Amino acid sequence: MLRWIHEQLALHGLDEVNARKVELASEEALVNIIQHAYKNTEGEVDIEIKEGEGNRIEIEIRDSGPPFNPLKQKTTFDPLASLEEREIGGLGILFIRQYMDDVRYRRDGSANVLTLVKKVA
């Protein structure tokens, strides 16, 4: 999936630095789907990449797991906290928010739809 995303980003003219940010955000979203939405079961993930308004690239990731809005999850991170004090998880959503220009979630029937948006320079 990530190789295909990389190829599509190059076709859409995204520079290498921003392409890596989009790839990392996409990887975090996909890992969350695989680990949580399809935990102990099989499922499908659909990915669509398209040009959006205002010279943007939109990556739409769709899964049929239980309803889950990652944007409502806690994303605070204290870099000064010791390892024992840090909570497990949550960094992926933080990375997604930091690396993308816009992130949207919606529930479409029985599907979770996460849209990652990046401006093309």
Layout of secondary structure:
Blueprint: H1 2-11, H2 16-37, E1 45-52, E2 56-63, H3 91-99, E3 102-108, E4 111-119
Antiparallel strand pairs: 1-2, 2-4, 3-4
Helix pairs in contact: 1-2, 2-3
Entry summary:
This protein has 121 residues and is of the alpha+beta class. It is built from three helices and four strands, in the order H-H-E-E-H-E-E.
CATH architectural arrangement: 2-Layer Sandwich
By CATH's scheme, which homologous superfamily applies?
Histidine kinase-like ATPase, C-terminal domain
Q: And the CATH topology?
A: Heat Shock Protein 90
Characterize the largest beta sheet: strand count, sense, and whether it forms a barrel. Answer: 4 strands, antiparallel
Global geometry: globular
Uncertain segments: none
Distance between the termini: 24 Å
The level 1 CATH classification is: Alpha Beta
Strand content: 25-35%
**What is the mean pLDDT?**
89
Strand order of the largest sheet: 1-2-4-3
Question: Strand-and-helix sequence, N→C?
Answer: HHEEHEE
Rg on CA atoms, Å: 15 Å
